[in-house]
Amino acid sequence: MSYPAIKTENLSKKFVIDHEVQERYLSLRDVIAAKAKRLTGRSKVPKNHKEDFYALSNINFEVNPGDRLGIIGRNGAGKSTLLKILSRITEPTTGRITIRGRVASLLEVGTGFHPELTGRENIFLNGAILGMSRAEIRSKFDEIVDFAEIEKFLDTPVKRYSSGMYVRLAFAVAAHLEPEILVVDEVLAVGDAQFQQKCLGKMQDVSRNDGRTVLFVSHNMGVIAQLCNRAILLNKGIIEASGDVNTVIDQYISGSRDSGENTYRVSETALDSKRNYFNTIYTTDRSGRVTSDFSFDDQVSLKFQFTINEMLPNLNIGIGFQDKLQNRVFTVLKPVSYFKNITGNTFAGTVTLPSSVIAPNSYSFVFVIWAKDVALYDSVENICSVRIHDNGTDLAVYEGFDYGSIIVNPIWRND
């Protein structure tokens, strides 16, 4: 019978928040008035207010050996608090945790390091904390140094390391000293893109090949989807969703969408000066929900209505797609005669962009009504901003870097 590597039962963590009453600057008149009120018994002395805040509330989940669990959620959802409890850095207020195996944690830069000791000494110190013998640590020593790429600074006190060097060594130690459970927070974001990719590969290797358990917190949904097979979504200290990583990520992205806030509407003042114009423009996802957030494999649809008071044979609708620097990515055109009249002089249309093509990044649109060699009737720019999120492409680890606007699948040959 296989037992879970980690099991939490009704786990809660409570903090007490003090709300201190701030005294404002008092003039002589205020002091005399306050003194008079105290003498007459009408003065009320303000008291500090204390509030119970639950960073985690009744958390229940299990992690099986070899699982790669992603923990996602907004800032303040309780992710780091959960990892600190699982790493035994802080105690829960209520509940029970069962952990089977040694835990190595990488929660913040310098976790478990003594600043006055050298890199070499800290490797042995961390190994000893994990319960490893000197011989075991020595057998892994060369691998750790090679992975961290700090051989030149091995005998330098770590207090003189840059934050990137700190993280490289800390991750190398945590990953190579053979813990059964590896806990990693967002600290890897400190490293460069090449090192992040290296760490991602190592975590996949120790989980899939060695059967070790990985708990990983990140705001990068692409990396979570690429590394993890399961995920839990935390929201205000409670588990909102748990299960298959892609399903949980979709729920997280769906929950973060701000419906209706990304809609363009023509202003009343513009109606006096325009003969042909757009009334409304907004973006929807595959299910028809109004949103500005899309996953890489989702379809971006633009729904729009426009009014035509001056019809011409060569009148066109033009839509420009531009990146966050307002560089044009592509343009599409369609004759106004293609669209159906819905009422009076008002027409409606939808254009859907292909999925799995637009690279993860931020974009916006330009809409125009124009007739070639005649007139530009309406032009609305930088509207309906959208964000495409990576949910597991090979380039997921580079999300946040600019690697172009279009992802193509070329034909490769090794000749």
What percent of residues adopt helix (DSSP H or I)?
10-25%
**Do you know the CATH architecture of the largest domain?**
3-Layer(aba) Sandwich
**H and E string:** EHEEHEEHHHEHEHEEHEHEEEEEEEEE
Q: Count structural domains.
A: 2
What does this structure look like?
The chain is of the alpha/beta class. The protein folds into two domains: 53-255, Rossmann fold (3-Layer(aba) Sandwich); 264-398, abc- transporter (atp binding component) like domain (Coagulation Factor XIII, Chain A, domain 1, Distorted Sandwich), CATH 2.70.50.60. Helices cover 24% and strands 35% of the residues. It is built from nine helices and 19 strands. The chain has helices spanning 28-40, 79-86, 119-129, 134-148, 163-176, 193-208, 221-227, 245-255, 268-271; strands at residues 6-19, 49-63, 68-72, 94-99, 103-106, 181-184, 213-217, 230-235, 238-244, 264-265, 276-284, 293-295, 300-308, 315-323, 328-335, 340-343, 346-353, 361-371, 375-389. Strands 5-6-7-3-8-9 form a six-stranded mixed sheet, sandwiched between helices. It has a five-stranded antiparallel sheet with strand order 10-11-13-17-16, with no helix packed on it. Strands 12-19-18-14-15 form a five-stranded mixed sheet. The protein is globular.
